[in-house]
Specification:
The protein has helices at residues 2-58, 63-74, 78-109, 112-132, 134-138, 158-187, 193-214, 221-236, 245-251, 253-273, 279-303, 308-328. It is mainly alpha-helical. Helix 3 (78-109) runs antiparallel to helix 7 (193-214), helix 7 (193-214) packs across helix 10 and helix 11 packs antiparallel against helix 12.
């Protein structure tokens, strides 16, 4: 009996730890399978979200280019049209002030899904209003002049191409600023800075549009574009000193004010250089150029977010590029038959 008992004890001693190890292994395997399953669900959800965002981007109506194409039929006078473009560009800044505040309020009071739904409904309502507005219903495209190998090909003229290239620098500065504002908020532990700094930039854009649109300017559009681009660059330089939050918020309003002038002059220049019947397409390329630059600025600023000086200097780098190109291409920015002196 003792032998049996001793043998049983020995057996228990040998099997007990093995059973415990097997149980632990089974639990670890279950945890691993759960982790893999969670990862799979997360990846699928990420891919679905990405696909939905891409689909939303592809189906976004080109309202901005379409609205700019309507101005000549609404305001035939070139001077008034230039002022209207400046006001149009400036008032768009209000979207970047009110929009984030509305989304934040809805997300806090309800949930992000409600904010997303309201955004989609407002976008649909706005598109419907624009499409059904009398100027949109009356508008007819100007017949194109020439053939595919003639005047219509001027959409790829050196002046337009260089203008679009320079505007990528404007977008780069804006994208870099957005990421820099987030880095500022994290560095100073003030979450509101990530929204306040872009809002200050947009406020400057709105005020700049009001001031610029009220005046009549004697210089050519190309000259105003270059001067405004230089002021846009100068406005970003104080950020390289890594100012305090309040000073940084005030500083970004300066390049914001001159952004309106740059974009308004870019639209007028595009209108002058684009061939008849291709203006809307040219406007779309203009907007795309800014968007491409903004994406590049956001991506690079995200990589350099930990380097405070480099992150603060990126907007100025984009603005410098936006100034250098029109300076070098000043003659090409003037329409045929109107060349600058000197």
């Amino acid at each position: 009996m003792q032998g049996d008992v001793g043998g049983g004890d020995a057996h228990d001693v040998g099997v007990g730890p093995l059973a415990l190890q097997l149980r632990d292994l089974a639990e670890e395997s279950t945890d691993a399978f759960s982790l893999v399953d969670d990862l799979r669900v997360g990846v699928l959800e990420g891919l679905l979200a990405t696909a939905l965002v891409v689909a939303a981007g592809l189906t976004t109506p080109s309202l901005e280019a379409g609205l700019r194409a309507l101005w000549p039929s609404v305001l035939p006078d070139a001077r008034l049209r230039h002022a209207a473009l400046a006001l149009d560009t400036g008032t768009q800044g209000l979207l970047y002030i009110v929009g984030p505040l509305l989304v934040a309020a809805l997300a806090s009071a309800y949930n992000p899904s409600v904010a997303l739904t309201v955004t989609a409904v407002l976008g649909l309502a706005g598109t419907t209003v624009v499409v059904l507005a009398p100027p949109s219903r009356r508008w007819r495209s100007t017949p194109s002049v020439g053939t595919l190998h003639g005047d219509v090909g001027r959409l790829t003229s050196p002046g337009l191409l260089l203008l679009f290239v320079s505007l990528t620098g404007i977008g780069f500065a804006i994208g870099a600023m957005n990421v820099w504002s987030i880095a500022m908020a994290e560095h100073h532990e003030q979450d509101m800075l990530s929204g306040i700094i872009p809002a200050a930039f947009s406020t400057g854009s709105f005020l700049g549009g009001l001031v610029y649109g009220r005046r009549t300017w004697s210089r050519t559009t190309a000259d105003r574009l270059i001067i405004a681009s230089a002021a846009f660059l100068a406005g970003w330089l104080p950020l390289a000193t890594q100012p305090a939050p309040f000073a940084a918020t005030a500083a970004v309003a300066v390049p914001g004010a001159f952004l309106t002038v740059v974009v308004a002059c870019a639209y007028v220049t595009t209108d002058a250089l684009a061939p008849a019947g291709r203006t809307s397409e040219a406007y779309a390329w203009l907007i795309l150029s800014i968007g491409v630059g903004q994406s590049a600025g956001t991506a690079l600023a995200g990589r350099l977010a930990e380097q405070t000086l480099a992150s603060a200097a990126l907007p100025a780098a984009g603005a410098a590029f936006a100034l250098a190109v029109p300076l070098a291409a000043r003659r090409q920015l003037h329409p045929a038959g109107h060349r600058p002196r000197g």
